Amino acid sequence: MANPSAFNGTRRHFLRNSLAVGAAALPLSQMAQAAPAAGDGDLPASIRALKPVAAQVVPIGNDERMARVARAQQLMGQHGIDVLFIGAGSSLTYFTGMHWWNSERLTGVLLPRSGELVYVTPEFERGRTLEQIKLGNDVRGWQEDEDPYALVARVVRDMGHATGVIGMEETVPFFRAKGIMDALPQARVVDAWPVSAGCRRIKSPAELALMKLANANTLAVYEAVWKALQPGMTEQDISGLVAMAYARTGLRGDADVNIGKYTASPHGSDKPQHLVEGTPIIFDGGCRADGYTSDMTRTVVLGQPSDEIRRIFDIVLQAQTAALKVARPGVTMSAVDGAARKVISDAGYGPDFRYFSHRLGHGIGLDMHEWDYLVRGNQHVLEPGMTFSDEPGIYLPDQFGVRLEDILYVTEDGAALMTPQSPSIDQPFG
Q: What superfamily does domain 14-56+203-417 belong to in CATH?
């Protein structure tokens, strides 16, 4: 299994973040780009029927952020970490509310085992830093001709930990970690994932509520797009429909779309594709509510699916259900993957990763991929509040693939999905 610290916070394809560019030459996608300003009459009826949901978002409050910091300090004590450095990224957002792009200029926060947060940022960014932070107001600025790592070292010395243990949040770039290590030669730098993951992998009721809202919205968007499909559409046309639908709801989102034989690759293809009746289409993506993301995959067909597609769909649905039934506190993550994989192998699509070629699932929250992973060999156990994708699939090379994905969350005595399962290929939304 992968190191738990090595999670991936980025989406699978850069294409997902540049749909408007890729679709610029297509009339339907041009319509999608203009969707926020378009009149209702310009939208397909199913998309026009979508309701705004942005007003339902309840942001994370400062009381919860203070509890997160207290939990981090408790874990720092347990793991012998004196100071935690968190750079730009989702953990900075999690603890402080800041949204900051990771660049060559150092911005971050230093959290001592006891005491208040100290922010380090370029002096010219002081105002924007103060504007964004939700906790504390101690901001130390460095000028463009100064060494930011020397400033970090001064702050750590002021905290009394120049020879202590510095925990480095695991997504901090190496060049930045090295700069801090060089500036504090008598300190010991360690991986801080027991603190960051120890806090973030367990979701609070407020976090779960945001994720449920985002996933419910994605399900509604997918159904509206499915009802608007027409023969001859390209994958970019369908992505344009997705963009229009999300614009209607008020939550930002997108989706990878693949058609026909390209669904046989779990992450699809960038090759040109056209929708033909009777062939499968896979939507895979999500939206965000106060930063918390959904992740959902639906396999649908325009028109009548073949008997083989129906059969494969039913096997994948059974595998997803088997994983859900096994998941509960104390069960290993390996066992959850194994339950789904056994269904697929017993149906003749094994052994191992032959046709179900990827792990069952990944953790999810502020990042679409985060701790932990439902994969063979992972002996970590489930705990209440953990969240994962439950996404089995069967992929037949050069023919088609079927994948179903919903977000599973662990309860006190079992597990549940945040959205209803797709019941059949003929009626994928019930």
A: Creatinase/methionine aminopeptidase superfamily (3.90.230.10)
